[in-house]
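Hi R.,

Here are the chain sequences for the assembly we discussed:
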Amino acid sequence: MRRCRECEGAVGDSHRFCPWCATPQRAKLVEFFAGTGDESGRALRVSRYVDEGHVRFSVWDETGRAEAAVSIDEDEARRLGLFLGVRDRLSSFFERLRV
Ligand SMILES: [Zn+2]
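And here is the predicted structure of the full complex:
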C-alpha cells in the first residue's frame, strides 16, 4: 500500500489510478513507430516509465500482438538516443560543408 501523489489517499500497489481522486499513479509515456518495407504492418512500441526509470521496447505484429519485449535502464536509453541522433548530426554537418 502506498499514498497517492496528489491526495495522499491509500492506493494499492496494483492500482494505476487513485481510487479517491483518479490521479494516475504511474507516469508512462508511450509512442508507436511504424515498420517499413516488408515490415510495414508491424510496429515498435516504446514505453518510458518515468518514475521507475526505465524504457521498454516491444515489437507488435500485424494482429496487434506483442512478439517480444525488452526493458533498458535510463543510461542505456540515453546511449540509444545519442546513437539515433548521430545520423542527423552528421547530415547537418555535411549540409553545412556543401554551402
Ligand atoms: Zn488521490
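The chain has one domain: 2-98. The pocket of zinc ion is lined by residues 4, 6-7, 9, 18, 20-21, 23 (CB under 6 Å).

Let me know if anything looks off.

Best,
T.
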